[in-house]
Design goal:
Blueprint: H1 11-17, H2 51-71, E1 81-82, H3 84-90, H4 102-107, E2 111-112, E3 126-127, H5 135-151, H6 153-168, H7 171-190, H8 198-208, E4 223-224, H9 243-252, H10 258-267, H11 273-284, H12 288-295, H13 298-331, E5 336-338, E6 341-343, H14 359-371
Parallel strand pairs: 1-4
Antiparallel strand pairs: 2-3, 5-6
Helix pairs in contact: 2-3, 5-7, 6-7, 6-9, 7-13, 8-13, 9-11, 13-14
Amino acid sequence: MEAGDGKEETPLSSALSRFQLSEDYGFLLPNPLVGDGRATMPQLSTRHLRGREELYLAHLVLSFITMGYLWQEGEEGTVKVTAGSPARGELAPSGSPPILSHADFVLANWRRKDPSGCCCPPCRNLDPIISLPGGESLRGFILVTFLVEKAAVPGIKAIPQAIHAIRQLDEETLHQALQGLATAIGAMAALRQYYVDPAVFYAVIRIFLSGWKDNPAMPDGLVYEGVSEEPMAFSGGSAAQSTVLHAFDELLGIRHSQESTAFLHRMRDYMPPPHRAFIEEIGRAPSLKQHVLCSGDARLRAAFNRCITALADFRSCHIAIVTKYIAVAKAKAGRAEVGGWAGRPPAALEAKGTGGSHIFSFLKSVRDTTRDGLISA
C-alpha cells in the first residue's frame, strides 16, 4: 500500500513510505511509466517532469540510450564524449548518477502485459519496458532479478517490525519478524536461476551493463558534454546496487572486510536517495545482534542464526551462478549472436564484475563474513 492511495495508513506502511518503499513491491517501483514515444524534446530538462515515476522513466530511457551508444561497437569502439542533451538531462532524474544502474535496469523497468494479471513466476505476464541486445536471455535476466526483489518484500517489511519490537522489548513480535526475514531470504535464493544462455550473457549482455570506472576499456572515464570538461567515472550496473542485501546486512549487524565495505558503500551512491536513507535509518537503530545476545533467549538466537545462514546460503548461490555465467561461459567464449547483433566477450572485464569489483574474491569474502555473523551457543 502506498501513501496517498486513499487507504488508511498503518504504522508499517507509514514507516516504509517515508523511504518510498511499498508494502507490496518493496524497493521496486510499483507502477512504472512506460512512455508514449514522444521523446523528441529539443533539450532535455527535468523541470518538465512531475513525480518520481516520470523521473524514473526519464533516467531509465536516457541511461539505456547512453549504454547503447557507448558500447554499440564493443570495447574497440568506445567514445570519450557523450552528446550534450542526454548528459544534461540524465544527471538529475531520481538523484542517481548518469549511467544505467540497478534501479533503472530492474526496479523501474518492468510492466504487466495484462494490467490486471499477476507478476509471479514464470514471468509470462511480465516484460521489460526497455531492452538492449540479448533477446530472451536479457528479458530473463531482468525479470528474474525483478522476481528476486519481489520475493524480498516480506523481509523488507520485517525490518521496521523488528526494530519496533526491539524498542518495545516485544520478544514474540521480534521472533516473528526474524522468522519472516529468514523465509524471505530463502525465497529469494530459490529464484536465483536465470533463464539466460550463459554465452549470450557473457558475450552480448554483460558489456551493456559495464561502466567507465575501474574499466580498462575506458580508463579515463567519459566527458559529459555541457556538464563537465573533465572526464567523469561511474560504475556499471551491479547486484551490489540492490538495497535489499545492504538493508539485511545492516539489520543483522554483518561486518564485511574493509575492501568489501568500501566497494559496497560506493555502490550505495547508485541507489535512489530514499533507499540509501532507509539503510542509514537501520544503522541508527538499536543493535539487533546485541539485543539477541543480551536477551539470553535461545529461541531468538536460533531465529537470528537462521537469518544469517539463509543469507550466507543466498550468497553461495550467487557465487555458483556467477561461476556458471562468467567463468564457465568464458571457457567456452567465442562470438554470440542475438537478433543480428554479434558480440565479443569484453576482455577488460574478464576478472571483474560490471560494477568494477574483483568479482570472485569479493563474493567469497562477503559470503564468509556473513557466516561470521552467527551467534555461537
